[in-house]
């Protein structure tokens, strides 16, 4: 039996587990999964996919750079690399990737707003990462650079009803999503891009092909099963659970910090959501905490001293007066975070009410 | 029930399916899989892993570029990019990747042998891809460039007993393997590097992290199950089946072409194999066919006219007088290939014996 299994593995491998899906035009992608992704966006109403291409990648991670590659490809070899920009605070990987890959075609140049009135911006292509909702502060960002040479990559991984109101179906030229932020299965490394332009789609496909020869079938199968679970419940239950959990956490956190003069949170308003058909409260994935005291320039260190581990503002291109706290951990982790923050806030009062020596 | 499933998915995702293995020091890699890979190499005797690092990637594909990145990283920005070289014929992806990624740190420069006496080679770092057994011709290549500045990346994906004799346990500084060539499960996109130097390991780890944040857990689980099947039978059955199949195919092909003056095959000799403990016949993954007639400069076209689809020599940096034929397809495909080649060879005789008009 064991012997039979062993050669059966090899036969199965050679015949049926090759690089390509024989029932989908030798594509590296499952057609069924693509169809379910389109259905999902239609049901949630968070993205227009009709008439657009869908491309799978290793999380949004790989697709970020595939998009930068595609938008900078026909760059003239003699001119400087295409600037890659983002609004501060921005997701740290945008900078890390462009730095590590060291391409001669593009270069991370930081704050997009500094390029709004740049005289070059009419001649040179500009690539802008727009994260909406933004990591770390949850804001529904829009591109700040306009004009025919400004190309935006919309990182839409948090644009699901557990993290934000869905005011409209997003319809940008390049939009990125991931299973990590939809169901939490970050370890499956599965993401997808929704792409309007055929040439950009083909360049990104080429990049993914040469980089990893597509996405593992096992990850595609896992994503299919997960998306089918979401679709079966018409999404209501998973998004309601997620929204309830995260909006409760946000409310508790806001209450805890409402009496503090030392720490402040980003402002997010209530907004009408077309998925829930009602006005809903904030439920961001992260808190973007600011240390308000002049001397608390290193907010990360202030929190760390109280055993609270965040991510320092500098990582997001911002001042270290800011820290990102994740609200996506387990309930135990969140309760501990709240408890420790509460202790810190209580100490503020102690100091205030202490008699002057 | 459906509702419960739906929120259970999200809870499971948040708590247990994150990026990292909590039982392996928050690594992106499964420790159990790493251990089984070491056991596998020990059992087969094809690679020394003791005292070396193991890194997972998306097939060997992603690891190829991770290695180039690591070896070219501390390149001085003002000097020219590090040359990436290979012996002809070489696997086409080496060139494609370096071209597509357009890095300012490295550049594909083709034939390694042209750099053997290059005066620069003592000053400049050189990166040489060594595929052993070679794709396309199955030869057990060794690095042609020597000296302190010559860095070799050994692509060892075909170094298993179904494709070649194992004369010794490979012990190079960077060696790449993949599940695709071990069990045929190319669609799982799982490969691993065996790396001697800690700095190179760390740079490659950084590259994989920033590129895709590791390899999907689903692909790691699949690889673990497959390797366990191979280990259970102590490898004998799967490798014997593979060797028998491929050596039979090679023998049939050789016989068919032995009467041809139009087509020739690469020469591969019998060799002692330390896995099978005996001298064994050739069993390569590919045939590297040469069209011998002066006028058959486009061998691909000659074969295509007879409905035989190969890959043209130019793709491997060689003359188009060569074509690579895959011997890894299903038995039906191989039988058809043999039949059509036989027809072509029979036509040679017809032409020879035709009366001159």
TrEMBL record, chains A, B:
Ranges where the Alliinase C-terminal domain occurs: 1-345
Protein keywords: Pyridoxal phosphate
Pfam families: Alliinase_C (PF04864)
Gene Ontology molecular functions: carbon-sulfur lyase activity; transaminase activity
Any one GO BP annotation for this protein: amino acid metabolic process
InterPro entries on file: Alliinase_C, Ethylene_sulfur-biosynth, PyrdxlP-dep_Trfase, PyrdxlP-dep_Trfase_major, PyrdxlP-dep_Trfase_small
Highest taxon in the source lineage: Eukaryota
Family: Belongs to the alliinase family.
UniProt subunit comment: Homodimer.
Name by which UniProt lists this protein: Tryptophan aminotransferase-related protein 4-like isoform X3
Gene this protein is translated from: LOC132799068
């Amino acid at each position: 039996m064991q012997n039979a299994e062993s050669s059966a593995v090899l036969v199965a491998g050679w015949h049926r587990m090759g690089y390509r899906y024989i029932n989908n035009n030798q594509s590296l992608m499952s057609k069924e999964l693509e169809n379910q992704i389109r259905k999902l966006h239609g049901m949630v109403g968070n993205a227009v996919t009709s008439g657009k291409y869908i491309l799978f990648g290793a999380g949004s991670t790989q697709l970020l750079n595939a998009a930068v590659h595609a938008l900078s490809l026909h760059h003239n070899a003699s001119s400087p690399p295409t600037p890659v920009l983002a609004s501060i605070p921005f997701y740290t990987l945008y900078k890390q990737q462009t730095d590590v890959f060291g391409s001669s075609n593009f270069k991370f140049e930081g704050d997009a707003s500094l390029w709004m009135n740049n005289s070059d911006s009419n001649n040179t292509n500009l690539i802008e990462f727009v994260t909406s909702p933004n990591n770390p502060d949850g804001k529904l960002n829009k591109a700040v650079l306009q004009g025919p040479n400004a190309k935006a990559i919309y990182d839409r991984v948090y644009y699901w009803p557990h993290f934000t109101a869905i005011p409209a179906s997003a319809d940008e030229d390049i939009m990125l999503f991931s299973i990590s932020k939809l169901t939490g299965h970050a370890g499956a490394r599965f993401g997808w891009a929704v792409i309007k332009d055929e040439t950009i789609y083909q360049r990104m496909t080429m990049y993914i092909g040469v980089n990893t020869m597509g996405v593992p079938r096992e990850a595609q199968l896992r994503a299919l099963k997960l998306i089918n679970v979401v679709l079966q419940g018409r999404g209501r239950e998973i998004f309601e659970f997620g929204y309830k959990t995260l909006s409760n956490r946000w409310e508790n956190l806001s209450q805890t910090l409402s009496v503090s003069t030392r720490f402040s949170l980003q402002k997010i308003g209530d907004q009408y959501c077309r998925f829930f058909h009602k006005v809903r409260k904030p439920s961001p994935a992260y808190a973007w905490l600011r240390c308000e005291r002049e001397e608390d320039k290193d907010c990360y260190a202030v929190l760390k001293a109280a055993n609270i581990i965040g991510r320092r503002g500098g990582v997001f291109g911002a001042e270290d007066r800011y820290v990102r706290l994740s609200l996506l951990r387990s309930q135990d982790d969140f309760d501990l975070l709240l408890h420790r923050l509460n202790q810190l806030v209580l100490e503020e009062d102690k100091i205030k009410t202490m008699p002057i020596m």
